[in-house]
Structure formats: structure tokens, C-alpha cells
Design brief:
Layout lengths: L11 E5 L3 H12 L3 E5 L43 H4 L23 H14 L6 E2 L2 E8 L5 E7 L5 E6 L1 E4 L21 E4 L13 E5 L3 H11 L4 E6 L8 E2 L6 E5 L1 E4 L4 E4 L4 E3 L2 E4 L10 E2 L27 E3 L8 H16 L8 H17 L14 H12 L6 H16 L11 H15 L1
Parallel strand pairs: 1-2, 1-7, 2-3, 4-17, 7-18, 8-16, 9-10, 9-16, 10-12
Antiparallel strand pairs: 4-5, 5-6, 11-12, 13-14, 14-15
Helix pairs in contact: 1-5, 5-7, 8-9
The chain binds flavin-adenine dinucleotide.
The site of flavin-adenine dinucleotide has 33 residues, from helix 1, strand 4 and helix 5.
Amino acid sequence: MASDIHPITKRHVAVIGAGASGLVAARELRREGHTVVVFERGEQVGGVWVYTPEVESDPLGLDPHREVVHSSLYQSLRTNLPREVMGFRDYPFVVKEDDEDRDPRRFPGHREVLKYLQDFAREFGINKLVRLETEVIYVGMVEGGKWKVKSRRRYGESVEEEYFDAVVVCVGHYWQPLIAQIPGIDVWPGKQIHSHNYRLSHPFRDKVVVLIGCSTSANDIGREVAGVAKEVHLACRSIGHETLGQQPGYDNIWRHPMIESVHNDGTVLFQDGSIVLAEFIMHCTGYKYYFPFLDTNGIVSTHDNRVGPLYKHVFPPELAPWLSFVGLVYKAAPFPVFELQSKWIASTLCNRVELPSREEMMKDVRTFYSSLEASGKPSRQTHNILEYQFEYIGWLVDQCGAPPHEEWREQMCVAYFKNLSARPNSYRDEWEDEDLVLQAHQDFLKRLK
Ligand code: FAD
């Protein structure tokens, strides 16, 4: 794929965001010789893994004037992936023996992930590329093919304007809450919150709480809240009838289909006709893709939570390779995917790897959208790669000539899903894939030598 038409070129690149995706994008861009500025509006690198007890002024996260709290982590959060598959491919997420203040568990607490990302930034010299407390407020293309980036320092009035050859958007997608539309909610007298603003269970002590959603967060938070609440009711859009009703192992958790309506006497009616009198509704209903700073003259849109059109979830064909996105996909181990997407972008920007023509990329996007439609998937599922994550990874590996994914990774993911469904309450502490853990560590040792 190396281009012999265009000479290898170094670019000046803006990376927006210093979470896992921005840090690895910066590293890959620099490895290819590009100059990089990373803009980060937070006080430290790590993105969503920078836990804060602070919450937003609007517990639903809808007020456009609220001060955004980026992180969606609650205090007790442990990873939902084993650390072996979670880490970057060439920087294993292993226990640091020389630091006693680490969490050695296979599914560690959030602080361990932040430390890992901070180690990564330090070891690869990324910190010096990052401008902390600097928010990007505008990105747009100007004549001559350059990108104008306007940024503002926290507490500062003045806006800085700079020009770059390319922009890589790495702002994450777990900070702009999506909430469920519920008939009657305007007259319902209870309190509402989005899981984005959940930190601790104590406000729910002795309360009757309805949680909407069936993701990992809904299940984890539901179990935690059940430790203090009187009753917890989970409302799910897509679950089998066999899992409805009182949940095994808990005398105060029930699962229902979606909410039909809520009423001014405080009751919540579910689609199966069951009714509860509740004091809280928590929306564990996910997030929106949101790029308020991005001006592409309508070329890229986020309609119905599809960022598009994008070639392979990364490049808008019309603006490629000058604008790209890392980290939009979900339902796959994120860090290794971010790493490969970043390698692809970095090598494309220096002409080492060539993209197909715009027409070919657009054709690919159209085919992809048609296939989603044919299989009945709504456009908000566009970036869900669960069913083809290894195919996607293999494709990225081929594009940038990276070493292939190790076999144990795929096997470990299969074992993980099996364990998750067999032990939904204890999968973080009990497993049966010790042989794969051993293989992973043998592999890591080779890399760390
Ligand atoms: P983020 O980590 O969100 O980083 C984006 C950065 O961009 C932030 O630092 C933000 O301040 C900055 N930014 C945003 N807008 C601007 C702007 N305009 N100007 C400047 N800077 C800006 N993944 C796993 O692998 N394992 C897990 O167990 C796991 N658990 C999760 C649990 C929860 C509750 C959530 C919400 C996510 C979880 N994830 C997990 C997914 C996690 O989001 C990814 O692992 C990954 O950390 C996302 O990295 P990112 O860099 O794409 O985004």
C-alpha cells in the first residue's frame, strides 16, 4: 500500500482530547514524524478515567449552559474488561511491581486505568505535546486546505487561532447524555438523574428506584443501589421474557420491559402492565456523539447518533485524510482499536499508506449503510462493531502493516462473554480462562524485554 507517487510528508496535526484515543493518536502521529499539538480541556490526561466526585448542575445533563463534567465514572467502578485485552497492544496493561499503590486485580478499579494511561503518556513523552485546560471551541477548513483551530484557556478570555494540516478528533462519546422519552414525565413528581451524574448510592437509601437501560452500567449501578435502596426496578427495551421478574440472588431487584407511562401520583407503568410507586428514575440510556466545535459545512453530521458519512468509522471521504475520528466505535475492546485507527491515520497522513478514491470510499459507506438497514439495525447502531470487531481489527492491521492480533485475544473475548453470561454478578472475580491469561503474559514478557 506504500505510495510511490507521493513523497513521504510530515504534517502539523491537531489532536483534540487527551483520553486514551488522543494519547495513542499523538504517539502514532509522532512516530511517523508529524508535529503534534494535543488540546485537552481537562486538568490532566486520561479522559473519562479521570474520576471526579463532582456532578453537573443539571442531573439529567440536558441544560446546554451547564458546566460539563467530562467523566461518567462512579466511585466504585471496576473495569468491565479483563486488563489483558483492555490495554494497548504494544503497552500491556500489567501490574507495575515497583509501585505498591496499584490495583493488581484482573478487573481493576478506575484509578488503576488512569495510572496506566498516565504511565503511557509519560513513557512515550506525550505530556509535553499536551496543552491542558485548553478547550477547542472551533475547527473548520480554510482556503488552501488548512484547518483553523480556535482554542481558549480555562479562565482565560482570549481565543487563540492556529492553523494545522490535519485534525484528529478524539473527544470521546460518553459525556453528552441521551435520555429516554417517557409519556407523562412532565407531571411525574419524582426525581430524575442520568447515570452520567451517578457517583455513590447513598442518595437512594430506602428509596424506590427505576433504572432505564440494560447495559453494563445499568446492571452494575442497579446492583450497587440495591445495597441501600428499598426496591430497584430495571426497565429494558430489549430483553427476553425469561429474564423478567425478581432477579436471582436479590430480594429487591426486579426486571421489567420498558416504561409505558408515568403519572402525577408517582406511579410508573411498565409495558407488561406492572406498576410501581417510585421516587427516582435513573436514565442509564447512553450518550450522544457531540462535536459542538466542528464546522464541516454540513459534510459530517451526527443525525440519529450516526457520525457520517465515515469510511470505516474514521475518515469522512470528502475531507480525508485531513479530518479523522478515533474512538467512535463501541462494543469492542477500545484501546487496541484506537491504537490501530491511529496508526492508519498517521501512516495515511504521511503518504505511506494510500486511501481509496473519494468515490470508492463513499461507495463503501453506502454499502455499509445498506447492510445495516437490511439487517434491521437503526442508524444509531452504526458504530456498534460487536459482530465484526475482529474482522475490523484485521482490516486495520492490513491497512497499516501492523503485527496481527494475537490469537489469545480473540479467545479471551469469547471466554469473557461466556463467563459474563454465566456469572453476571461475579465475572470480575471468578473465571476459567487462566490458560489464556498465562499465554497473554508470556506474550507481554516478550514485548517488555
Ligand atoms: P475520553 O476518555 O472521553 O477522552 C476524551 C477527552 O477529550 C477528554 O479528556 C475531554 O476532556 C477531551 N475533550 C472533549 N472535548 C474537548 C474540547 N472541545 N477541547 C479539548 N478537549 C476536549 N473501556 C474499557 O476499555 N474498559 C472498561 O472497563 C470501560 N468502562 C467504561 C465505563 C464507563 C462508565 C464509561 C463511560 C466508559 C467505559 N469504557 C471502558 C470506555 C471508555 O470510554 C474508553 O475505554 C476510553 O477511555 C475512551 O477514550 P477516549 O479518549 O475516546 O475518550
